[in-house]
Structure formats: C-alpha cells, structure tokens
Amino acid sequence: MVRRHSRWVFRFLMVALALAAGWKTTRRLVALEIARLEPSVEGIGVALAWDPENPRLYESRARLRQSRVEDFDLEGARADWERALKLNRHYWLYWLEYGRILEMAGRSQPAQEALTEAIRLSPRNGTYHWALANFFIRGGQLERAIQPMKRALQLEDLYLRPAAQLLLGLGVPVETLDEIWPERPPAVWFLFDFLVHHWDRGQAVWGEAIFRRQWQRLLALQEGVDLSPQHLQPYFRQLVERGFYRRARLDWAELMDRNGAGDTAFREGRELAWNGGFELPPLQDIFDWQIQPNSAFEVRFARLEGRAGTTGLRIRFTGRENPRFAHLRQRMALDPGRRYRLSFWAQARGLSSEEGFFWVVRNLATGSQSKSDAMSNTEQWQQSHFVFTAPPGSGWFELALEGLPSDRSIRRTEATILLDDVSVRLW
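-> structure tokens emitted (427 positions)
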C-alpha cells in the first residue's frame, strides 16, 4: 500500500514539474515576442514582467537607456547591466558594457575592474583589451594603456587603423610606438603604408627617421607581405615628390636586392642606369626602363640578341609609318651641374632619318636637356660615349632615346636598332 502511494506521489510530482517547465517556457516565449513587437523601454518592461529571469531582456533595455536620447537613463542602464550580470556573471560582453556605464558615471575604479574581468573571461578577444587601453588613455594614463593596446593589436588587425590614428593624434614618443606596434607582417605593412599616406603629420610628430626605421622593418620581413615595386609605388612617389631622389634610388636598390634582383654597382652609386644590360625582367617602374607601346614599332627585351649573346633591347620599325620615337626612357637621380658619361653598345640597320636617333638627358623640373650625337647605321656592334653636364634644376632626370621623323618620303622599312650595356657614371 505504501509502495503504491509513493508511485502516485512520484507521478504527480513529475507531471507538476513538466507543467511548470512548460509554463516557464511559455512565459519566456511570450516575453520575447513582446520585446520583438515593442522594442522600447516600456515594451521590454512588460516583457520582463512575464520573464524576469532573462538577462537578454535586461541587456536590450540597458542598451536603449544608454544610446537613445529620448530614453537616456544612466542609472537605469547601470541597474539593468547589474541585473544581467547577476543572472549571467560569465558573459564577458556584459562586463564590458557595465564597465563603460560605470566610466560614464564617473566611477573609474569599478569601471576598470569590470573591464579587467571581461578580459579575464575572454582573454583572446582583442575588443576587451582595446576597450581597457582606451579607458586608460581617456584617464590620462598612457603608460598603463601600452600593454592592453599592444595585446589588442596582436590579436585583431581591425584595430591597426584606429590605433595608428590614435597614437599619431596623441603624438606619443616614437619609443612608445615601437613598443606597442606588433611585428606581425600585416601590422608592419599597415604602419608603413599609413605613414606613407600621412607623411607630413608623421614627420611632424615622429621625425624623418620614422620612415627609415619602418622601411628597414619592412625589408626584414621574410613573408606575408607583397614587396613588389608595384605595391610600393606610393612610397617612391612620395620620395620623388618631396625631392628625396637619392634616397629613392637607394631604397629602390635595397628593394631589388631583397627581391633577388640586385645590382651592386647601382646600389653603391657607381652605376646610375638601372638594368642597362637588359638582363633583368622589365618592371616598367620608377627606376626601370619605361617602354610605351606603339603600332609603328616594337620595343622588347630580346634574349640571345645582346652584344655577347646575352639579352639586349630590340627596337624594330614596321615601315608602315614615319613616327617620332620617344618611347624608351628611364628616370635617374643625378646632381645638377656635375659631369657624367653615358656609354652604350648599339647595332642599327635600315635607319633613314636624317636626324637619326640620339640620347637625351632631361631635367624633369626645368625641361633643360643635353643631347648626344645621332646614332648611325652600323653592321657590327659599336660602342659610343656621350659626356654631358647634368642640366640645372632639381635632381630628378630622365634618360630617353629619341628619334625624329624623316623629312623625306623614304620610310623606315624594317629598320632595327639593338642596344646593350647602357651605362651612366660620374665622369
């Protein structure tokens, strides 16, 4: 009899528990639907009357109270975050938002403790380290912000831009920048690129040396960043626009060395023409040969057609037109007023222009130029020299091979020029 009575009690309790669980679930669903249909402080208040144990509802109301002007209620938001934390103390996001509210209320020490707790609960989320760093900066404690900001940048690339803008705006010492900034390739590249696009401000705050230091850090990377000349064009453009011609040449040489296409004589400044032997692949970049296509002629690097069976440069005219030729050029960093010697080997056949072809060294700032004697037809390879004084102006020059159209009706029929070992050196 007692055993049968116990079974009935057990069944009754199970049914009661099931009904209670079902009722609780029903109340939660009703509360969520009310909050969805009426997403306001009042509506969520009604929802909480149905389900007072749901931390997400307190979170929603707290956000409304701290973000909407018509509902702004700092104390109410703080109370909501505290209630949400009481129901779920292990959710790091609640600690983050609670810390922000406490800071807004002027309670710095509890705010710091809340942000620190968020980091403890989610140590690999850069958001919480970033929030703590900014908390210290707003409080004028830059030294205490260094470690959390450094950690945030180690964890999250998305904070690289705001960190660079913030540190530049604060004018922190360059030593602090070096301490905070991570060595990961994407971070090193970002800071370099950021400085290139904020050159004047970066120079004013951190001095000219910051660019050199970041350039060296960039070249030291073994992988993870595209260090092709094309990718670094903005940097070289900035150097040239600011008159740092020699530095642009040196950095270009370093970059080529790093990419396995170095030229010792060019890097050391003994040779001022890049790839004069045409052995390296054409890059069409700042210090390389610039070749402009044209239907009247073909200009290309020609393997096995150089002076010693190596690579040379072939210019072949189709004979269909009688054009002006100005489609082979290279930029150079020279010293105005100094004497240089251009030497080159050439082989030319079929030229009919009275003017022939000649080299021009032109100052790109003033347009003043020096011009060599005209090239003539030669069946065999022949070396020529042209000694010139760099024209006055800036230190940025252009070496160009040019040719004028013929005044006669005779056209260049399959005319061909071969060039090799073009060299420009101090004389």
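The longest helix spans residues 2-37.
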